[in-house]
Amino acid sequence: MRFVDLIEKKADGFSLSKEEIEFMVNGFVDGSIPDYQMSAMMMAILQKDMNDQETADLTMAMMYSGETVDLSDLPGVKLDKHSTGGVGDTTTLVVAPLVAACGGTVAKMSGRGLGHTGGTLDKLESIPGTSVEIPLQRFKDIVRQCGVAVIGQSKDLDPADKKMYALRDVTATVRSIPLIASSIMSKKLASGADGIVLDVKTGTGAFMRTVEEARRLARTMVSIGTLTGRKVTALITDMNQPLGNAVGNALEVKEAVELLSGKISEADPLYEVCMLLGTHMLLMAGIANSSEQAQAMLKEKITDGSGLKRLQQMIALQGGDASYLCVEQMERLTSVRKVIDLPALQDGYVTSMMAEKIGTAAQILGAGRAVKSDVIDPAVGLVMKVRVGDQVRAGDPICTLYVNDDTHLEEAKKLLYEAVTISDTKQKGNPMIHEVITAENL
Ligand code: URA
Ligand code: CA
């Protein structure tokens, strides 16, 4: 097989066979296919697309390029959830312990934040002592004991994805749907889950700007599940404004603790998305037989405090100080040098919010990283005080900033004023949940 012929085949719009795709992935990982040929192939894929079978074959070839995690000795359906990246998206810290409290097995490998989006590992590490680098055997023991553990992906997982992503980043091929879908799904499959609920974000703060693009990505990933023998459900949810109000590591943990303590209204978007994610995880595991039953179970675990107790137990088993994890103690983790309210500059209604700019504002205050080597300040960030549709008066706070280092404070404020548009006519926010795509309704 000559790789140049495969590039030509794809550039002419033909599909590649499983053997050809394996030849490509293996050759690229072992260095026999150089970057310039792989760049040309990825551009051909971006332009001519891949069908569902090719995308599933690519996913499997990438998954088997490195270590794969075997969770088969854990009880039940091994559940995972994944968000394509959002701002103020604290769902894992809420849903994983709630589902475990309902009897689910949640063995989750998460990522770190980069750019305007946050990462679950960074949020967990804002709780003193918590380790997210735990050997596999210990990880499984923790899951056996409390039904849930969240750790970082092993460095040896999916080397094909690391190499392909680095090349996509500099060849304008990141946005290809089969390349995004195989990148996400190969890591999820390699992590050993057999049931995965995906939260595909759409809007100004997301990779997929329109619902149509998000739907294509969601359908592609659900189809990969079907073709590889895993259960996959995808939600399409709105990221035109931050999901929760808090953006920043300890601030988001605090919001999760508040939700698990019953302090956040059922009408809140974060609550709504957490419920839907949890519902589909329980349905997938066969723990609930209907959405109504699943929701009732999840709500009960908030009311009786057992969801919060699971989070505390998980953190303690991962080496963290769980005494912080109650509403009364969380202030200790979010104490900073300066707390600043940002006032609205005019009367009116909030008509739009740009989640990406809000995420970037939190990042430059020290809550996130511009490059992988940046160090995070766990306490800093911001809490939004308004949502799209809210009425405000000049002088009312639209946002509260938590600041230690004010080097970029003025820049952060400027971004926030750009992000939040206030005008005279009231406008309704988008619905939070756009669609749910399952293998059955694919
Ligand atoms: N997230 C990933 O892991 N890969 C992509 O290609 C895009 C988003
Ligand atoms: Ca996230």
**Radius of gyration using CA atoms only:** 22 Å
E-strand count:
13
Q: How large is the share of residues in beta strands?
A: 15-25%
| Biggest sheet details | 6 strands, mixed
Shape from CA axes? globular
Compute the average pLDDT.
96
Structural class: alpha/beta
Q: pLDDT below 50 for ≥5 consecutive residues: which ranges? A: none
Unique ligands:
uracil, calcium ion
Number of helices: 16
Distance from first to last alpha carbon: 35 Å
Helix content: 40-55%
What does this structure look like?
- The chain has helices at residues 3-11, 18-30, 35-48, 52-63, 91-101, 120-125, 136-146, 159-169, 177-190, 211-228, 249-260, 269-284, 291-303, 306-317, 355-367, 409-419; strands at 78-83, 105-110, 148-152, 195-202, 231-238, 246-247, 338-343, 348-353, 381-384, 391-392, 397-403, 420-423, 433-437.
- With 442 residues, it is an alpha/beta fold.
- The strands form 3 sheets. A 6-stranded mixed beta sheet has the order 3-2-1-4-5-13, with helices on both faces. A 4-stranded antiparallel beta sheet has the order 6-9-11-7, with helices on both faces.
- α2 (18-30) crosses α8, α12 (269-284) packs across α13 and α15 packs antiparallel against α16.
- The longest helix is centred in the middle third of the chain and has 18 residues, at 211-228.
- The chain is globular, with a radius of gyration of 22 Å.
- The two termini are 35 Å apart.
- The relative contact order is 0.15.
- The protein binds uracil and calcium ion (CA).
- The site of uracil has 4 residues, from α9.
